[in-house]
Every structure is written in structure tokens, then in C-alpha cells.
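Work Package 3 (structural annotation) set out to generate three-dimensional models for the target panel prioritized at the project kickoff. During this period the team completed the workflow that converts sequence records into C-alpha cells, so that structures can be stored uniformly alongside our sequence database. As a representative example, we reproduce one entry of 464 residues exactly as it appears in the project archive.
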Amino acid sequence: MASDQKLLIGSQEWCNFPTLGIPAIKARVDSGAKTSAIHAFNISPFRRNNEAWVSFEVHPLQNNRRTAVRCESRVVDRRKIKNTSGVSESRYVIRVPMRFGEQEWDVEISLTNRDSMGYRFLLGRQAMLGRVVVDPELKFSMGGLSAAQLSEIYYEPERVQSGLRIGLLATNENLYSNRRLMEAAWQRGHDVRFLNIAQCYMKLHATDPEIYYRGGAGQSDLDGVITRIRPSMTYYGCAITRQFESMGVKTINSSEAITQSRDKLLSYQILIKHGIEIPTTGFGNSPIDTNALIDIVDGAPLIVKLLEGTQGRGVVLAETRKAAESLINAFKTLKANLLVQQFVKEANGKDLRCFVIDGKVVASIERTAAPGEFRANIHRGATAAVVRITAAERALAVKAAKTLGLRIAGVDLIRSKNGPLLLEVNSSPGLEGIEAATGKDIATMVITSMEKALRWKRPVSSSE
């Protein structure tokens, strides 16, 4: 294509991929990115005619996870590509025709989870070389698409709800994990409603217990409730969960299991009673015992954990004995309950997150702390990558979740010279990091677990 025939495009454009069955997707044009990337999930490699292929699903529309297109393509490569945070991740790369208006040419596209990004497709410079000229002041130079046009393009018949009535008990409806769970429930034909914990209230009655939601709507018609209770709402959230249980409504994690997992000291005591290894940990009340606590965990460096802290909050690394003494005594002056825990140097700033559903590890990732942070603060700017865990690590994660009575759990482990050690069991694990890293549809697995608990089977349609 001669330079005077190059296509003039703007910073945003509509394009399509005919061989993938994607009739319209909005592209973010970015000459700073080398490789183009499309939002893909449920990525699954397979062989066809002795060649490497991959199947995946795409949500082609922004802020819309209900519309999904299933795609298949031959794999041309699997390479390390840096994401927007500058972190390298291994991605499948495909080569398919891309159409802009009347023009079409083949482009290489990497498959990655872009759900947290604003655009489902990123057009990189490699796909533009010799083909286009970009004017960043332009948008939709080849025409835009209205919401009505997109609805017609991606028409889906009205779905008749024939499934379960599921409540999602949480605090933030817009949180990634909560949105994913609601959309997964809807896609499987269930009626799902969001229940803000703070806006629920209850009636305690021997024969007619009830939970009401803002405005006085009773919730006794629910079949099941997915519990996602934030730490600051543990007491009230578990009270609401117990009330649902007294009404005969199935909760995916019970109030007792959540309470046990949220109390670090109690959970450790339960876990070690069942033979589960944890880093050596000390607990005491009197400042007189400070030096003895430090000695229990083999001295500094050591980790100090507030019992109420989660996700790296209230967790501090004391690198010297003097720093540890000052830190422990300062917390005790504030009457804060704390644990003193052994620092496992060989973990090298990494931990493992195992997502357990119904006694099975369905996904696992290795998280690496950001520079300047340490393993206990791994949630702050950490990077995640898919990891193959050992049989011992898998067994430990499953046993920990089972011991605390959790159907759904995020189990955090570290690798030590003496084998895997358990750090924490989370009763409301987030989905964003593990779905992005693994490409797995964890949200649907959670909904399937609820179906299993309620012995519900998906009805077979007349067309099947």
C-alpha cells in the first residue's frame, strides 16, 4: 500500500474480525504498544490437524459482560509481552484478518484479560505499519455505532429466568468480583439480586424469621446466598448470614466458617490442631513477654500482624530486634491484639494463592511483592503469574479450606525449605487477579458450586 493510500484513523475506531465472528469491537489505537491485544477469557489450547489452536471467549462491548462471543484460531506463537504495568506475561498470539471499513489485512493479536481496561481491543503499531496514519485528534473516522445499532448487531433473545433466586451479600455492587458473580449467575439463567450488608435488617422470631432489605422487601424467597463480607463488616455480615441460615436459605460459606477464618488466632489454632503447618507464631499480652515472643519466632527479622488486618493491612516487617521490640510494645500500648510471626527468608517475597471450590484447587497463581515491599504486603502492587503447584501444596490448600468449613476460599501459602506453609485462608477471595492471570472463568465456577449445593440442574431447552 503506497503512503498516499494509507488509511487515516483516529485514536478510537470501530473494527471487526470476520473469522472470529466479532462484527464490531471498539479499538484503542496506541502506537506506543508494539503488539495488538484483545480481551479474552476462558482461554483453552487444543490440537487440530496436529497444529496448535486456542479457543477463547470475548466480551466485545465495553462495560458489558453479558454479551460474549466464542472464538477459535490457530496459534502462531506464545510469547512474553509486557502489560500496561510493565510486567511481562506469557500470552497466546493469533493471526487473523482485521477489517477497517472496506479495507482488510492480517494482524497478530495477543490474548489477555483486559476486563479492567477501558477498551476490549488495543491496536498496536505492528499492525499499523505501512497501513495507516493516525491523527490523535480524530475519533471514529469511518463512522460510529450507536447503542441501538450495537444491540441489533449483538442481538440476543430475551432470556427467561428459569433458575435459582440468588442473593449476593456484599457491600460494593461495582466491585469487579461482585459484578462478575452477578453476570455469571445471570448467564446461567438465575435471578440474582445484590444485597448491601449495611442496608439489610432482620426480624428475630421463633416461627417467622425474616431479613428485610431497604424499603422493607423481604428476602425469604431466596434459594441461596453468596457471602462476600468485607473485614470491617464481619460481625454484622455474619449476623445477617446466620439469619439466612435460620430461614433455611443456603449460604455458600457459612457464618461459622467465615467467623473462624476472619479471626487469625482462632483460625491458626484450629488449623494446627488438624496438623496444618504454619510459620512459627507467637501471641501474648504483657509487654514483659516481648523479648520472649521475639525468641519464640527465632528473632529478627520477624513479622508483626494485627489480628484484625487483612490483605496486607496491619502487617509490618521488623528487620532488627530493637525495631521489633519498639513495634510490639507500641501496638500493646494501643491495646491492639497482635501476632508475632517467623519471617521465612527463602520465600523470596513470593506467595501462592490457591482458589479452592468444593474441595478442589481450581486455579493457582504465584504473587511477587513489588520492589520495596515484602511478602506479607504482597497485595500492594504485586505481580501475578500462573504457577504449577505441587501435590503437597494442593493437598494443604484443600485441607485448610475444609478444616475451616469453607466451600469457597482463597488459600495463601509460602514455600519454605521444609515444605509449604499456610499463611491465611480468605473466605471472600477476590476474582480479578486470578481470572486475569489464569484466563479462567472463576465466577461461573462459584455459581456452579451454588447450583451443586442446592442440587439444581440446568433445564434442557427444546432446541438441545
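The chain has four domains: 3-153, 165-261, 280-343, 347-453.
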